[in-house]
Each structure stands twice: as structure tokens, then as C-alpha cells.
Amino acid sequence: MMFISKKYLVAFAFSVISISQIKAQTQTSTTDSIYTDQNNEEQSVVVKRKHSPKLATYLSAAVPGAGQVFNKKYWKVPIIYAGFAGGIYLNNYYNKKYQTYKNAYDSIIKIKNDTATLKINGKPLNTLQIQEGRNYYRKNRDLYRICIAVWYALNIVDACVDAYLFDYDMSDNLSLHISPDFNYYNKQSYYAGATLRFTLK
């Protein structure tokens, strides 16, 4: 009984350590290099992200607009779904027209009469006109299917970019100034570079 208790205790401790390591690894951080004004020494500043771009990307990939909700950009959700609605409507419209012309063209091919005419929407059309209509509506249908796929990809990219910028200060109180920097010590020691200064008003 004592042996079993120790065994479960060791397993519990091991699981706690594993979970803590996973949390440490999943926490995103960025490292920026800056120069101090006094000693010109390079120092590293670690900026920890509380907002997860990976989670925002996964959410928008699973449900379009969910990443934008996670980023608190609620106004983008209606735009995303309006784009999908428009693309799906046009895809269905051109696909319906394509199927009509395709069936008509297939009927002419079956009877093997190139001079035959068929009425589509009350308008008599010959074989060439039906073939051109079929190709036209198929091309537009395929185009809008590509547009829907691109719109879906943009929804994911937008959520990811917004998540990366979520923790940054984008207010007017933050300014960045870049100026050239040149120091001359002696004939054999000098350097040239650029100085970045962040200012909080």
C-alpha cells in the first residue's frame, strides 16, 4: 500500500512538471536589442505576449470571424460574412447557369446534330452559342470559387496580424525617432550606425 502511494505521488509530480514546461514553451516572447546612451552597450529586452497569435489563427481557420472576435475587432465580422455571402451567391448563380447550358449542349451532342437549336430562357440558341455560354458561366463560377478561397485565407491572415499587434501601444503617446550615429575615437577606432529613440509623451 505504501509502495502504491509513492508510485502515484511520483507520477503526479512528474505530470505537474510537464504541464509547467509546456506552459513555459507556449508563452510567446520577442527579444529586442537596444543601446544605452551612457556606455553604448547592447542590452536585450524581452517583451512577453499575453495575446496568442497562434490561437487567433486557429480560431479563424476553424470558424471565420472567430479570430477577429478573439482580437476584439467585432466590426470586422459582418464584413467577413458579407464577403462570403456575396461570393457564395454569385457562385450559385453562375453554377446554375452553367448547368443549364451544359445540359443543353450535352443534349445536342447526344442527337449528333450540330445545326440544331434549343431554347434557353425563351431564346433560341445554336450549338456554338450554347457552347460559348457554357464556357462563359463555367469560367465565372470557377473565378468566384477562387475568390471565396482567397477571402477565407485573408480572414485567417487578418486575425493573425491583428493578434501580433494586439499588445503593442499604437496610441499617439508613443513615437519613434531614427537618427544617424557616428562616433570617432581615434584613427583606428570608429563606428557608424543608427540610433532609435522611443518617446512616451
Topology (SSEs and partners):
Layout: H1 2-26, E1 29-35, E2 42-48, H2 53-62, H3 66-70, H4 76-111, E3 118-120, E4 123-125, H5 127-164, E5 174-186, E6 189-200
Antiparallel strand pairs: 1-2, 3-4, 5-6
SS content category: alpha+beta
Low-confidence stretches at least 5 residues in length (pLDDT < 50)? 1-38
Give the N-to-C terminal Cα separation.
Answer: 66 Å
Mean pLDDT over the residues: 75
Oligomer: single chain
Helix content: 55-70%
The percent range for strand residues is 15-25%
Strand order of the largest sheet: 1-2
Please compute the radius of gyration using only Cα atoms.
32 Å
Can you tell me the overall shape?
elongated
Give the H and E element order.
HEEHHHEEHEE
The main pleated sheet reads as: 2 strands, antiparallel
Q: DSSP helix count?
A: 5
Count all strands and give the number: 6
Please characterize this protein's 3D structure.
- With 201 residues, this protein is of the alpha+beta class.
- The protein has a domain at 50-167.
- Helices cover 57% and strands 22% of the residues.
- The protein has 5 helices and 6 strands.
- A hairpin with a 2-residue loop joins β3 and β4 (123-125).
- α2 runs antiparallel to α5 (127-164) and α4 (76-111) runs antiparallel to α5 (127-164).
- The radius of gyration is 32 Å and the shape is elongated.
- The protein starts with a helix and ends with a strand.
- Mean pLDDT is 75; it is low at 1-38.
Q: What's a quick, concise take on this entry?
A:
With 201 residues, the protein is α+β, with helices and mostly antiparallel strands. The protein is 57% helix and 22% strand.
